[in-house]
Design goal:
Layout: E1 2-6, E2 13-17, E3 25-29, H1 30-35, H2 43-54, E4 57-58, E5 63-70, E6 78-86, E7 90-97, E8 104-105, E9 109-116, E10 121-129, E11 135-140, E12 145-147, E13 151-154, E14 159-166, E15 173-182, E16 185-196, E17 200-202, E18 218-226, E19 232-235, H3 242-273, H4 286-321, E20 331-334, E21 337-340, E22 344-352
Parallel strand pairs: 9-16
Antiparallel strand pairs: 1-5, 2-4, 2-6, 3-5, 6-7, 8-10, 10-14, 11-13, 11-15, 12-14, 15-16, 17-18, 18-22, 19-21, 20-22
Helix pairs in contact: 3-4
């Protein structure tokens, strides 16, 4: 391998290369390397040539080249940092040699085809190491796609099955890139799919309940019909879109955060003014008594605040996992959620209870 240095200064500069302390790497001037294969005639020409070849002084605007020879003893990765010194600075030239290489066999494109909206479509894909050494891999997928396993290690010749899941939220075409990374390399792989609204409908477009008296109730029935080829899951929600659900959950979480801050402040003030129980014994030394008292107060405060933090963490988790199903004091729908198999229907009941 040949590398060169160019002097961009206005005066001549000297360049010195620290000889490698590894027997695997040697550095020689490029011109000297070429001239060793042939004999030069004329003492004057030979002397001038030698001076030009071996001189480390580089004229302004000129460059000097060196050849790095690598003599490996095994088929493995090697790394060495070559030190170059000039009159004003010292810098490092990294030398890297790759031995055994890992290479992964993976499809160039993932196409899910035409799938129903909000239906999980799975696509199994095989990943195989066809290289010469084991390697660790990592895959990043875009939104609306999931992966059964995002990273792993493959030995030479080993094959592993990955399952990609596509869950479109809207009826449109999807085209994006997933990224496969290994051995410092990153490959972009196109992932595409198209979602459509399947043949699922309600038997009635509106519900008109019969008049009834207070404390009594009336029923109306309708069907959800699934004429598609895949099972569907349904639920009656309190909000029309997922965006409205997320906004509501964010407001609830912000309210919980504010309540936690206020409760922490109140507990902290109460514990700071609280005294240790009278029946707890202390040593006669006043300084020791005060230190022990502060330690007990601190342990008590940490315990109470830890319990408070776990309480609000549990509440926030419940809010995030809440499906936001339909709830009303006057109207009830049964069932609120369920699954309908292909070419079947389910009957729902609306109850009016004034």
């Amino acid at each position: 391998m040949t590398f060169s240095y160019r002097n961009k200064d206005r005066v001549a500069r000297s360049v010195k290369i620290i000889p490698p302390d590894s027997k695997l790497f040697t550095v020689i001037p490029a011109k000297k390397s070429m001239n060793t294969a042939k004999k030069t005639t004329g003492s004057l020409a030979s002397t001038a040539s030698d001076i030009d070849q071996m001189s480390s002084k580089v004229a302004p605007g000129m460059e000097i080249s060196y050849i790095i020879r690598f003599s490996p003893e095994a088929k493995v990765d090697f790394a060495y940092d070559l030190t170059v010194v000039t009159e004003r600075e010292k810098f490092i030239v990294p030398i890297r040699a790759r031995g055994c290489l890992a290479m992964l066999d993976f499809p160039d494109q993932l196409d899910f085809g035409l799938v129903p909206v909000k239906f999980e479509t799975e696509k199994p894909v095989m990943i195989r190491n066809i290289g010469e050494k084991a390697t660790k891999w990592h895959i990043r997928v875009p939104n609306n796609f999931r992966l059964s396993k995002s990273e792993g290690i493959l030995e030479v010749g080993q094959t592993e099955q990955l399952v990609f899941v596509f869950t479109p939220q809207e009826a449109k075409k999807y085209a994006d890139e997933l990224y496969l990374s290994y051995e410092g390399l990153e490959a972009e792989i196109q992932i595409i799919g198209e979602a459509h609204n399947d043949n699922v409908y309600l038997s009635k477009s509106h519900i008109h309940t019969d008049p009834t008296s207070i404390t009594l109730f009336s029923h109306q029935y309708f069907e959800i019909v699934n004429k598609s080829t895949v099972p569907i899951e349904f639920s009656w929600r309190a909000f029309a879109t997922e965006m409205e659900e997320q906004i509501k959950k964010q407001r609830l979480n912000q309210q919980l955060t504010q309540e936690e801050i206020e409760e922490r402040a109140e507990i902290g003030m109460a514990l700071d003014q609280d005294d240790v129980d009278d029946d707890q014994s202390l040593d006669s030394d006043d300084s020791y008594d005060q230190l022990e008292l502060e330690q007990r107060r601190q342990r008590k405060k940490e315990k109470v605040l830890g319990t408070l933090s776990r309480k609000y963490t549990t509440i926030k988790k419940a809010v995030d996992e809440d499906k936001m199903l339909f709830q009303d004091e006057i109207f009830q729908i049964e069932p609120l959620e369920g699954k309908i198999w292909p070419n079947t229907e389910i009957t729902c009941c609306v109850t009016f209870r004034p």
